[in-house]
Amino acid sequence: MGFFDRFSAKKADATPASDNPAVAPTGPLARLAAAREKLDARDLPAAVAIYEEVLGTSGERADVLVTISGDLGSRGHIAEIIELIAPRYDA
Predict the structure, then answer these.
(1) Residue 76 in 3-state DSSP?
(2) Exposed / middle / buried, residue 1 (Cβ in 10 Å: 0-12, 13-18, 19+)
(3) Which DSSP symbol is given to 59?
């Protein structure tokens, strides 16, 4: 094998796990991204359901609270911010 052959050789399976649809990320940030997609598709009830799920498992995380309030606020869903975030917010 020559020097340049190392760079042109194909690898057996170079697909990252995140690109593989069979292995979907399930962490809170991935769920927040899924909820954002629902908001972009104008499916507010589905997005709120995902947000409630995330808040049930990771509701104490500041980044989760900021992301949810930012996503909802930038799309004009102020009542949902108050409903979801206000009970968990501690200044």
Answers:
(1) coil
(2) exposed
(3) T
pLDDT digits (tens, 9 = 90+) for 11-64: 544 444 444 444 456 789 999 999 999 999 999 999 999 999 999 999 889 999
Q: Show the tokens assigned to 33.
A: 């991204």
Cα(28)–Cα(55) distance, integer angstroms: 9
Predicted TM-score of the model (pTM): 0.71
What one-character-per-residue DSSP string does 13-30 give? Answer: ----GGG-TTS---SHHH
**Closest by Cα among 91, 26, 39 to 65:** 91
CB 35 within 8 A of CB 54: yes
C-alpha 85/C-alpha 51 separation (Å) is 10
Q: How far apart are CA 54 and CA 67, in angstroms?
A: 11
Token duo for residue 59 = 């509701």
